[in-house]
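INFO batch 0412 | record 1 of 1 | parsing
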Amino acid sequence: MIFEGLADRLQETFKKLRGHGRLTEDDVNEAMRDVRMALLEADVNFKVVKDFVKKVKERAVGQEVLETLTPAQFVVKIVDEELTSLMGGTQSKINISPKPPTIIMLVGLQGAGKTTSAGKLGIALKKKGKHPILVAADIYRPAAVKQLQIIGSQLDIPVFSMPQGTDAVMIAKSSLDFATHRASDVIIIDTAGRLQINRELMDELKSIKTEVNPHEILLVVDAMTGQEAVNVAQSFNEDLNIDGVILTKMDGDARGGAALSIKAVTNCPIKFIGMGEKLEPLEPFYPDRMASRILGMGDVLSLVEKAQELYDAKQAKEIQKKFRKDEFTLDDFLEQMQQIRKLGSFEQILGMIPGMGTLKKQLEGADIDLNGKETRRIEAIIRSMTPRERADIKIIDGSRRKRIAKGSGTSVQEVNKLLKQFAEMRKMMKKMKNLKGGKGLGSFRMPKIPGLPFMK
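INFO prediction complete | emitting tokens
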């Protein structure tokens, strides 16, 4: 989980504060010591930590706070506001040119995820109604051009490349004509990186910048590198005057030091964050929502937006029809389970609901699929069945169960468990379709369906 360690420490600190009635200056000082240690352990830049704690302390020891009836809540409010300010204050959007095409140049070191981010940014812009192209200007890394072409093919986004040996500056310049001919309104240039910053790299990037005059230069950095990501951002900004940052691998960074330091050190806003290796759109970075999540106040807006994005009214009606006609199959169940998985694991969803972050610890020992492991096992079982078996579970006899278990890497007992629970669910649906206005619902108990934690 993003910021997990920091979130736990800060929430514990404020829990202690709430145990006091009115706060004294000593209470505030002790809390600020805990906040300082929590931020340093999260790999936040020490100068940033020093300034942050100073600002919070100055506001928290004022008479306005010490004399209020709920001073602990007031301190949390101050920390929330200062964290939001630290990360940029408001969402920073891409600068779209009023005269197409908008040129976006991605820069960064090797291994930060530039090529994948180019595709993720492309699909995010497609969802906004844009018609992007990807430009393969990384002429040094083996198979970089091929990788971008594969990504473009998977996302149905055109990729512009030139024969091997062509200069990167020429590729970037030639892409402008290509975009014009295809009526594309966004050009995303994937540039070369190095294992470390050097003059040769910067000179090439400066030449591309001079030649194509991009509207946006976005630096792609790996969030898991912590303070090194901040140092890289500072170096690139000094040479290229970058417009924003894309933080990749945020789901693997439990500390969050880079996200909390970059804006303060470089004055460059974080515009997008990338989660995982799958080709899903980059997520816009909202400082206020991220601050709320760190302090355990949730992020309902992001959860609602994601759910709305995934909701398919037509598909929902089809599923309702199948429920009524008793035609709901394991294929339909699998499809619904995958839709729910797109929202994230149950653990991630809990973190976005106010007050539920602490519930996660209480549920860790319970029979609840927090990280999606059980969901993946069920998916493997269903995928090991033939289309006919998924449509009619009655035909799955002993030998078929053994084959399905072997194919999915599970046991016959686990296959039996899923089939039994799915049959129970089908029975429940059959009974419920005859009910009018919900009468008699109290006599039915929703069966325990693995992989759908809220049904447990």
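INFO post-check: The longest strand covers residues 216-222.
INFO record closed
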